[in-house]
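Lesson 9: reading folded outputs for more than one chain in a single document. The general rule is that every protein is listed as its sequence immediately followed by its structure tokens, and records are never interleaved. Here is the first one.
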Amino acid sequence: MRLEVIDRSKGGMWPWLGQRVTAVVVIVTILVHLTLTHYVAAGKLDFNNIAGRLADRAVVVNDVLLLVAVVYHALNGLRMVVLDYALSGTSARHVFDAALWVIGIGAIIYGIWALWVWVV
């Protein structure tokens, strides 16, 4: 039996591992988010109620962690699909990776900015 190494043309080992780790992080943080939102801080959804929830740093940390994990997991999954079916050249792969990094960082900054309104 021959073991195959996960090479860079199929995505690489670190993105593969990151996909597995972020899957666990997404599951845990979404469960914490749903528990905090629907069971711990249940009430009428209005500005003051949401501002009160987000005044707790644990909620903000959980939401930011969830945001980062979801963005990485989604864009890395998209990257793997595109590498499997479309991009085989190294230069095209690098350009695509750079574009995904820009999109991901932009999405995370936008998400944190949207949360920032509630915590300031």
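And here is the second record, again sequence then tokens.
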Amino acid sequence: MLAHPIQQPLRAIVYRTRGSMGGPITRLMSPSDLGELIKPFVFLDHFDFDARGASMEMELGWHPHSGIATVTAVLEGSIRYAETTGKAGVLPAGGVEWMRAGNGVWHTGAPESGRVKGFQLWVALPPEMENAPNASHYVMPDEVPAEGPVQVILGAYGKAKSPIASPPMNYLVVRLKAGQRWSYHPPKGHTVAWVAVQDGMLRTPSHASSGEIAIFEPSEESIDFVAEGNTTFVLGSAPKHPHDLILGNYSVHTSAEALRQGEAEIRRIGQRLRADGKRSYALREY
């Protein structure tokens, strides 16, 4: 009797999109659409600035958040940042911003000169963190752990573990050379998984190409990738966020009461910004 090889189940892509482009920023998902499918990952922008002209004024970009953490991964170039906590600086290529807004914070940013590429992600926080004091962590490139083709932004991969204290989830930057194969084995309980491709094309076994976000079916099964050309992408996996998404203008909470509390703090900080003469389109909303 001949033995037959056991076939590993294939993890199918169930949704893909190129999002909507607005100048140098492409919105790949929002809390009101795909965020419901892959929460706690609820928002993703891909940015690609070519800042050879006049630089953006930081003062014009002040905006608030509560109930979430923002995660900015700079893949090329550098960005300036500032928060109402007093933190400010420059995040170079390979650096990571983790800003846990918690009960409320305002921040702003702008690309430095030259080409600037990367992703900004929003992560929905659990009830015990959504109205907690804000906290941020800026990780410089030499502090981002790596194993093989993977840089660990959040969570862990192999022996590499992020220095950022996040809820249970993995968020990875992966760079594969043409023809290179790589398999991702999610931790137990990580039934949510997605990729967003910056450059190149992946076969997984169907294709995900540059500019797309691809969402995999809910499962703990592994995902196999083959790069068709040199390819850079981000991958997220996590247990499903078991809470409703209650939305404000810049906030995501688990209940209407938690949202009211966060937006009250946002208004308080906004009034202080206005008194300090900070200008922002967002200030008109609070």
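What the second record shows: The longest helix spans residues 256-275.
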